[in-house]
What we know:
It is a single chain. Strands 5-6-2-8-9 form a 5-stranded mixed β-sheet, with no helix packed on it. It has a 4-stranded mixed β-sheet with strand order 1-4-7-3, with no helix packed on it. It has 129 residues and is α/β, with parallel strands linked by helices. Helices cover 16% and strands 46% of the residues. The protein has one domain. A hairpin with a 2-residue loop joins strand 5 and strand 6. The termini are far apart. It contains 1 helix and 9 strands.
Amino acid sequence: MISPKTARVLTCCVAIVLAGGLTACSVDARNATPEEKTFAFGGETLDVKAHGIPTDLVASDREDVKVTRWFDTRAGSSKTLRWELKDGALELEAGCTGLALCDARFEVEVPRGVEVLRDGRKTDLRGRE
């Protein structure tokens, strides 16, 4: 029979080994191949809903909205990816579920002159920068 003290030591050792293994398998969106999608846009206000994912908003000389996504995940990860523009709201999702490792980021190019909201809140970007 294992003593409680020995069980605690073994538990700590296993936790350290697992943490080290996860670090070696880390993911980074900066290393991912970018994917792009454009959306027709004729409105005056765009609400970007990125659900906590790092998202750069950029004013651009274009008439549509261009989204670039970087997403990195390890094999076996169950991923959730979505990007759609409907009724002036740009929904961006990129994540994974279960015991999975993933990382994501977006860049959204917006036509000049468009008011840009982030999750319903005003931003400094007005499409003039």
